[in-house]
Amino acid sequence: MTEAARFRAINVGNIDSLPEWQALDPDLRRAVRVVAAVLPFRTNQYVVEELIDWDKVPEDPIFQLTFPQQGMLSAQDFATMADLIDGGAERPVIDEAANRIRATLNPHPAGQMTHNVPEFECGPVDGIQHKYRETVLFFPNRGQTCHAYCTFCFRWAQFVGPKELRFGTDDTELVGSYLKAHPEVTDVLITGGDPLIMKTRVLRRYIEPLLKIEHLTSIRIGSKAVAYWPQRFVTDDDADDLLRLFEEIVAAGKHIALMGHYTHPVELRPGVARRAAKRIVSTGANIRMQSPVLRHINDDPDDWAHLWRSGVRLGCIPYYMFIVRDTGARSYFEVPLADAHAIFRRAYRQVSGLSRTVRGPSMSATPGKIRVAGTAEVSRQKVFVLEYLQARAPDRVGIPFFAEYDENAAWFDELRPLQEQDRWLFEDGSPRPKHPAQTIPIEMVRGRPPRDHRPERSSRKGMKAP
């Protein structure tokens, strides 16, 4: 496709128009439709034509990243939805069944609704989260969709399911008042969805009030547009206006960081993607590269090393390798912590110091961002060495602590502290919800089924810990 192509979204309503889709096995097409009735599905013409190698489907990593897969649902849930769809059930019946399944998938992990929504003046401040002392997350209503949806997305509840489980606000005055009342806040992360789905003139309305708050030093924008629609920075009709906005943020004395969600090195292969990165960096903005490590997609250290080297060549900063969060289709994508650390270590040792700005593998768990620093032996027992990179309780940051080694553990709550003195570092310690807006049915927050009842992991490129 040409660089200046017009954006065209693709979903279950128009996917039959794709010749690539028509060439796929009918069972695969059916599986995509069934899972898409539960979890969000949206891609676009650029992803389809430039990033997916259709000769390698379904194993192609970008196909796995953007097209729902049968293994993302348990066998029982898939059969339930397939029976309804194949039987021609009415939409309300299908939606009711889908909502029941969604409620078991832990739609808001790590205390997003129960712990992160702050109170101010008369009640909760809708559309923001304040988990860490220095950083506030801001969810503008107009930015709560994306150019394409990632199949692993931990914010899938923003796109499907009950509206009361979604974050968003247009009340920039209230957000500004909250920020002014909290001088400890230095960073605002504008997030979604994807804020760069908005036209620049709309994005300005959210950003310009922030420039007047003196104690704010950094504005971050979380975006996958760098990979899924790089034309946003190159040939869209307001691409130049967007870059001028970045320059104005820098001129106002603020740091602007684009948190670039790069998941696989193929996303930097097209010329328009590389040109987009260079144009962004030329404004004085930083691009910080981050992604979870994902089975079926990027659980290969060579892919990570390639991604980091490619980014550094363009002026990007490798930032985080995350552990996929305990939500949605986590069981399909998860990589055990021991394997994730092995992948990180083998990638890290391939690159120069310029790429070693990256941190990980890190879990964004309820108490904070927890890095698996490695393994060690304590009193003749093998252990995980852990460290808070960020925490609700700032005094925990940087203190090494230990968990019993478990080769199957894939999330923080599956670990056990080694000793009594490590126990307090495992505990959340944050206050309980104080208002109704932070109180939602417990099954909608902690509905992740026990490991024994989750879908079995399918085969993957195993990276056993050394």
Counting DSSP E segments of at least 2 residues, the number of strands comes to 15
The largest sheet, given as strand count, sense and whether it forms a barrel, is: 11 strands, mixed
Arrangement of strands in the largest sheet? 5-6-7-8-9-10-11-12-13-14-15
Beginning-to-end CA distance, first to last residue: 44 Å
- Mean pLDDT comes to 90
Q: Which segments are poorly predicted (pLDDT under 50) over 5 or more consecutive residues? A: 432-466
Radius of gyration: 22 Å
Shape: globular
SS-based class: alpha/beta
Binned, the helix content reads 25-40%
Beta-strand portion reads 15-25%
Describe the structure.
Strand 9 (255-260), helix 11 and strand 10 form a beta-alpha-beta unit. The protein starts with 8 loop residues before the first strand and ends in a 21-residue tail after the last helix. Helix content is 30%, strand content 17%. The chain is an alpha/beta fold and 466 residues long. The strands form three sheets. It has an eleven-stranded mixed beta sheet. A two-stranded antiparallel ribbon has the order 1-2. Strands 3-4 form a two-stranded antiparallel sheet. It is globular and about 55 Å long. Helix 12 packs across helix 14. The model is unreliable at 432-466 (pLDDT under 50). The protein has 16 helices and 15 strands. The protein has helices at residues 19-22, 26-36, 45-51, 61-66, 75-86, 91-102, 172-180, 200-207, 225-228, 239-251, 271-282, 301-313, 330-333, 337-348, 420-426, 442-445, and strands spanning 9-10, 43-44, 119-120, 123-124, 128-132, 135-138, 187-190, 218-223, 255-260, 286-293, 317-323, 359-365, 368-378, 381-391, 401-404.
